[in-house]
Write a structure and sequence with these properties.
single chain; mainly alpha; 2 domains; globular
């Protein structure tokens, strides 16, 4: 069986949304003639745009869960001992809290960036603008504080949740050419991106256009099956590339990877789970992961 985590599902819905660029309010008055402001916006606007897409995705899914007359898909939770998700509908209440919090992420992050920019402009201290991304304030990130990796441990059965999205006119865009499991990508080449649809359309129009785009514009899958890769057959570079793609697909920052605890899985365990079709030993994968950290390809969160 195939499963999609709650976190991955929001990403698939967000990938079907395109938003017009929307800058922090203060820039409307000052334009782009200040290099520090330009750098600040170039760094933070892509993250704001993604946060807004995720917020819309969370709102749509939350609305369907609350108001749809269609039968809800089963809620599943990862079971560490069994090593597969099991049905647990009691997790729905927690999932709704997660979705409700995620719905406001875009607005919170945009307000944070806007406030940071306004303060710098009002004080005429542009050198105070952070070089890197503006960080989420406490309990204002995508997920509520204290839930760990729970959004990545809540699952749906693939066929059930995709059918539910379709019945509720919620668009989604899955990566092309699956290998196995939940994360789907090519190991050696990247296919062209599917057509992205405009948020200005209604959800029904988006869904209809998405189907048309998939039929007419996406590269058609070949009859030949994807090669069955084994860990021992892959080069070091291919392994690094595959792990980095998986980290990105799980929506982690490769330079700030969460570390597991007794109750929650860390990034390493979740990546290893996604790549378990490659027939490697846990010792071999853990050793390669340590080498990637030593070579600065990845880093744990501080």
């Amino acid at each position: 069986m195939e499963y999609f985590s709650l976190a991955s599902l929001l990403g698939y819905i967000a990938d079907a949304i395109e938003l017009q660029p929307r800058f922090a309010g203060a820039i409307d008055c000052f334009g782009y003639n200040i290099s520090e402001v330009q750098a600040f916006l170039e760094t933070n606007n892509p993250r704001i745009e993604w946060a807004r897409k995720i917020s819309i995705a969370a709102k749509w899914l939350n609305e369907a869960i609350h108001n749809s007359t269609h039968h809800k898909p089963k809620w599943m939770v990862s079971d560490d001992e069994k090593q597969f998700p099991i049905c647990d509908n009691s997790i729905e209440a927690v999932a709704v809290e997660i979705l409700t919090h995620a719905t406001g992420w875009g607005c919170r992050l945009e307000d944070n960036c806007d406030t940071t920019l306004r303060n710098a402009i009002s004080l005429n201290k542009f050198d105070t603008l952070p070089i890197n991304r503006v960080q989420d304030r406490v309990n204002e990130g995508l997920w509520p504080e204290g839930i760990g990796m729970l959004p990545c441990r809540i699952f749906f059965i693939k066929e059930e949740i995709l059918s539910y999205l379709t019945l509720n006119d919620i668009p989604y865009m899955l990566p092309i050419n699956p290998i196995t499991n939940k994360i789907k990508y090519e190991t050696e080449s990247t296919p062209e991106e599917p057509a992205i649809l405009k948020i200005q359309d209604t959800k029904q129009e988006i869904h209809q256009k998405r189907i048309g785009a998939l039929e007419s514009e996406q590269p058609q899958p070949t009859e030949k099956a994807l090669p069955a890769h084994k860990w021992t057959d892959m080069t070091k570079g291919a392994k690094i590339d595959l792990i980095l793609k998986t980290i990105n697909a799980l929506k982690f920052d490769k330079d700030a990877l969460p570390v597991g605890s007794g109750k929650t899985l860390g990034a390493k365990s979740m990546v290893r789970e996604q790549l378990n079709h490659l027939s490697y030993t846990k010792i071999a994968f853990d050793s390669f992961w340590r080498n990637m950290k030593a070579d600065k390809h990845i880093s744990d969160a501080k």
